[in-house]
């Protein structure tokens, strides 16, 4: 059988593409070229949707992919948040909550891996928090572009988004604690076994 690195697949390629798309997004946004910046962000969102669909349909799940997918999401969201916060200082508090949440989640995931435990995947509340994050930024920027800025709408959107981010973090933190103290084999990562399987496939 021909040797083949299973990490080289379409879903992982799309995750890497999503990371690369951050560069043109930041470039266009900082030059106030919002249309091409928006197009790049849409392409990024489509790649995020497609990599999951392709991975499920063709069973192209890999350990690398499970790390690349959330990493590309967090980097993209972080880039969008920073760019919009620079443009709209009112968004800085929400950016602070977002950054704190993501940093703490990365630290928790690293701790689990160090303990040879498997970090949890995305949950519905995490996805909802992400959607609200994008909607809030999109509405606030759109109101600015169309000269329809409304402080009440801005405060409501930011409050709802921040509240859901905090809720999502609390739920993830409970899961991390559960996995950290779990003795269930499904929550463990056996790195030696993974290496043996890779060697066997070669």
Automatic annotation (TrEMBL):
Main location: membrane
Top-level taxon of the source organism: Bacteria
Pathway(s) of this molecule: Phospholipid metabolism; phosphatidylglycerol biosynthesis; phosphatidylglycerol from CDP-diacylglycerol: step 1/2
Subcellular location: Membrane
Keyword Lipid biosynthesis among UniProt keywords: yes
Membrane-spanning segments: 12-30, 90-112, 124-145, 151-170
Catalytic activity, as annotated: a CDP-1,2-diacyl-sn-glycerol + sn-glycerol 3-phosphate = a 1,2-diacyl-sn-glycero-3-phospho-(1'-sn-glycero-3'-phosphate) + CMP + H(+)
Coiled-coil intervals, chain numbering: none
Enzyme nomenclature, EC number: 2.7.8.5
Entry keyword Manganese: no
InterPro entries, sorted: CDP-alcohol_PTase-I (IPR050324), CDP-OH_P_trans (IPR000462), CDP-OH_PTrfase_TM_dom (IPR043130), CDP_ALCOHOL_P_TRANSF_CS (IPR048254), Phosphatidylglycerol_P_synth (IPR004570)
Topology of the protein relative to the lipid bilayer: Multi-pass membrane protein
UniProt keyword annotations, A-Z: Lipid biosynthesis, Lipid metabolism, Membrane, Phospholipid biosynthesis, Phospholipid metabolism, Transferase, Transmembrane, Transmembrane helix
PANTHER family listed in its UniProt record: CDP-DIACYLGLYCEROL--GLYCEROL-3-PHOSPHATE 3-PHOSPHATIDYLTRANSFERASE 1, CHLOROPLASTIC, CDP-DIACYLGLYCEROL--GLYCEROL-3-PHOSPHATE 3-PHOSPHATIDYLTRANSFERASE-RELATED
Record's function text: This protein catalyzes the committed step to the synthesis of the acidic phospholipids.
Family: Belongs to the CDP-alcohol phosphatidyltransferase class-I family.
Protein name (record): CDP-diacylglycerol--glycerol-3-phosphate 3-phosphatidyltransferase
């Amino acid at each position: 059988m021909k040797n083949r690195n299973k990490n080289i697949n379409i879903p992982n390629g799309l995750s890497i593409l999503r990371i690369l798309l951050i560069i043109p997004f930041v470039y266009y946004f900082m030059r106030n070229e919002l249309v091409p910046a928006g197009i790049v962000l849409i392409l990024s969102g489509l790649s995020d949707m497609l990599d999951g669909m392709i991975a499920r349909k063709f069973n192209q799940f890999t350990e690398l992919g499970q790390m690349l997918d959330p990493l590309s999401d967090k980097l993209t969201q972080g880039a969008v948040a920073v760019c919009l916060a620079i443009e709209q200082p009112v968004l800085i508090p929400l950016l602070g909550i977002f950054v704190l949440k993501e940093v703490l989640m990365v630290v928790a995931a690293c701790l689990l891996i160090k303990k040879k435990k498997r970090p949890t995947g995305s949950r519905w509340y995490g996805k909802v928090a992400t959607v609200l994050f994008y909607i809030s930024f999109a509405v606030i920027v759109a109101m600015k572009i169309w000269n329809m800025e409304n402080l009440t709408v801005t405060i409501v959107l930011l409050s709802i988004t921040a509240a859901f981010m905090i809720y999502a973090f609390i739920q993830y933190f409970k899961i991390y604690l559960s996995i950290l103290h779990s003795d269930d084999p499904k929550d463990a990562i056996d790195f030696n076994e993974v290496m043996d399987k890779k060697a066997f496939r070669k």
